[in-house]
Design brief:
The complex is a heterodimer. By secondary structure, chain A is α+β, with helices and mostly antiparallel strands. Chain A is built from 3 helices and 6 strands. Chain A has one domain: Nuclear Transport Factor 2, Chain: A (Roll), CATH 3.10.450.50. Classes of the chains: A alpha+beta, B alpha+beta.
């Protein structure tokens, strides 16, 4: 008989991911950044099954410092690629929560679909995302968010907002 | 414009202006594919992308699908990716390894030098069918310099040396930074597309005029861009904020042309010798060990910002990369950007370069995205027929010879380099294939 693993209550994780998506859709990029731990990273590989963000190109690989530069730019009045700004709708589902590891961090997998509309053009981004989350009081901080887009090695028109 | 008579085409380019149809006319675009991309020396790939026999990459030269592969004898082959039987593209993957290149349709199999090896059901072949005559077509001319492989799809025309020769120093500038004296393009790639003409990207790589405006969102309140190089604490001064104008050091940048449409821009002094980080310092030590302190200092003194090897590639000297420009349609272009691994440099240095290139030139980067927006808007604006001419006259007549560099020099905020590109363009386009 398999060992009995106590069921993890998925609700707080699901709420967290929905909250994160809502911040992005509301263009509250600075608040979104604050969800990340001080040592947190945001990674969108450009190679399928990419093993490391260090030795291969990535679409995004931001630590908090880069994230701040990115958010400063997104708030800049003359960011041409956001004139007019993108509007997005994120949908997060198929959530799987792994039990916490030795560091007390949770691995949360989900499927994300983001539809973006800008300057008369609508396009779709989709893929599997992995959040590594650390408990922080009642909530969580993101240690790493990785988004593997199904077309990560495709040719993209300019992207400005995080997935 | 379909016939492309020389005098008609010549009327599109004037000393300081270009007719808008050069960017918008689909017939002219077809002529470009025929007269430029089926003829000129084009960058295909880098030898490091196919290190072992049987390794291949596929790409397009203009619209023509090609395979670049390593044959058993060590040679790099540039083959047309088109089965000689019924025309199907033979290799469909972007990269891979194979001892035989086998067509999916009827199983014709080719060796990695293009020779036809196997025809299934051979009794169906007619009397006298000669496999030797059915090898994959190969690029008539292939040239390589320090791993950079170029091909021309025409048997005649200027030699590889005539075309690439004047830009060899620019390739050296990058390759010499590798302690082992060679590069590897094995760190993935950034790919993007935009709804605009291919020449918009070409003109932009040597354009220092646009930076304070096009990239305003990357410049902080002190007028300084974010650091784009491992070991720099900050980037170049772009804007003099008190006077609200382009910074003096930026205005002093130079650009150079050497014929054939090629050119480059000089770098802005960034660091006054203060460039330092654990990764950079370790790299510098390795380089000094290999080439000596004096030569290492020369190599690490930035001279070049961007170099254009007309008509389809550029080399960035700041946040180092190789860029390839591929025309898809008159108003659609794909660009591929390869990070560079400096062979023999500590991993941390290479990782730093790769990481900063994500920031400047991925499809989601801080710099390139605003350029793409400018290209898209240019293509839209150029639909206007009430203003037929595009102005490229900045600095016209101010060019001067640079005898040390055997080049012609101008200011990088001028448009000498764009005029040089159109001179080369006209050279190809006036002449029927």
């Amino acid at each position: 008989m398999d060992a009995v693993v106590p069921a993890i209550d998925r609700a707080p994780f699901e709420q967290f991911l929905i909250h994160e998506a809502a911040l992005l859709d509301a263009r509250r990029f600075r608040d979104w950044m604050m969800l990340f731990a001080e040592d947190g990273t945001y990674w969108v590989p450009a190679v399928p099954d990419q093993q490391s963000p260090l030795n291969q190109a990535s679409l995004f690989y931001d630590d908090r410092e880069l994230m701040k530069t990115r958010v400063d730019r997104l708030e800049h009045p003359r960011i041409h690629v956001q004139t007019p700004p993108s509007r997005t709708a994120h949908l997060v589902g198929n959530i799987v929560v792994e039990p916490s590891d030795a560091n007390g961090e949770f691995a949360v997998g989900s499927t994300v679909i983001m539809v973006e509309y800008r300057d008369d053009t609508q396009r779709v981004f989709a893929g599997r995302q992995q959040h590594r989350l650390r408990r922080d009081g009642e909530g969580f901080r993101i240690v790493q968010k990785r988004v593997d887009l199904i077309n990560c090695d495709g040719a993209f028109e300019a992207m400005a907002v995080p997935i | 414009m379909r016939n492309g008579h020389a005098d008609q085409i010549a009327r599109l380019i004037e000393p300081g202006r270009v007719h808008r149809s050069v960017y918008t006319d689909p017939d002219l675009f077809e002529l470009e594919l025929e007269r430029i991309f089926s003829r000129a020396w084009l960058f295909v790939g880098h030898a490091s992308q196919v290190p072992e026999p049987g390794d291949y990459i596929t790409t397009e030269l203009g619209r023509q699908p090609v395979i670049m592969c390593r044959h058993r004898d060590g040679s790099v082959q540039v083959l047309l990716n088109r089965c000689t039987h019924r025309g199907a593209k033979v290799v469909n993957e972007r990269k891979g390894h194979a001892s035989r290149l086998v067509c999916c349709y009827h199983g014709w199999a080719y060796d990695t030098d293009g020779r036809l090896v196997t025809v299934p059901v051979p009794e169906g072949c007619g009397e006298g069918f000669d496999k030797e005559a059915f090898g994959l077509a190969r690029a008539p001319r292939v040239g390589e310099y320090r791993g950079f492989v170029f091909a021309s799809l025409a048997a005649g025309g200027p030699s590889f040396e005539d075309h690439i020769g004047p830009m060899k120093g620019n390739i050296d500038d990058l390759v010499d930074r590798a302690p082992d004296g060679e590069l590897a393009l094995d760190a993935g790639m950034h790919r993007y597309v935009y709804n605009g003409n291919w020449k918009l990207q070409l003109e932009n790589v040597l354009d220092s005029y646009h930076v304070p405006f096009g990239h305003a969102s990357t410049v902080n309140k002190d007028g300084v861009q974010f650091a784009r190089r491992e070991g720099d604490s900050k980037g170049a001064a772009v804007i003099e904020t008190k006077k609200k104008e382009t910074a003096g050091s930026w205005r002093d940048r130079k650009s150079f042309i050497v014929g054939n449409g090629h050119g480059w821009t000089s770098n802005t002094t960034l660091d006054d010798g203060k460039r330092s980080s654990p990764a950079f310092d370790a790299y510098k030590r390795v380089l000094v060990d290999k080439v000596g302190a004096e030569r290492a200092n020369e190599i690490l003194t930035p001279r070049l910002h961007n170099s254009l090897i007309y008509p389809n590639m550029s080399i960035m000297g700041l946040n180092i990369h190789v860029r390839v420009i591929k025309p898809i349609a008159v108003d659609r272009t794909e660009v591929t950007i390869y990070p560079i691994r400096l062979c023999g440099a500590p991993d941390a240095m290479n990782f730093g370069n790769i990481r900063l290139l994500n920031v400047t030139h991925s499809a989601a980067s801080f710099v390139q995205t605003d350029d793409l927006e400018s290209f898209v808007r240019a293509q839209k604006g150029l639909q206007s027929s009430l203003t037929d001419w595009v102005d490229i006259s900045r600095g016209l007549g101010d060019e001067e010879p640079d005898r040390d560099l055997n080049a012609t020099r101008g200011l990088a905020t001028h448009e000498m380099v764009v005029r040089a590109q159109y001179k080369a363009w006209l050279g190809y386009m006036r002449e029927a294939a």
